[in-house]
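REVIEWER CHECKLIST
Item 1: Sequence provided? yes
Item 2: Single chain? yes
Item 3: Sequence as submitted:
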Amino acid sequence: MRIEVWTLPNCPRCEKAKAGLASAGLAFEERSLDALRRGDIRDVEALAALAMADYQAPLVRLDGRFIEHHELVTLMAGCSDGCRVAVGGGQ
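Item 4: Structure as written out by the authors:
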């Protein structure tokens, strides 16, 4: 499982997401939304996800797909290696 957490500095929601993932034992790569907005990082999917999230941080990409807040909560609730995060459509 590959997790990217796109964050802003001094963002309480970002810190909560990172702490929740860490406490669930999930490794993640932190990415900078500031760098993305400045154009230092080029990731069209991340820019689109940011716009669709009304520019609210953090954004979380799980195995190449940006997930919604309720899916992040599922991950932080202690998802073990064998559990699956529900995706839109009830999978």
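Item 5: Key structural point noted by reviewer: The chain has one domain: 3-76.
Item 6: Recommendation: ____
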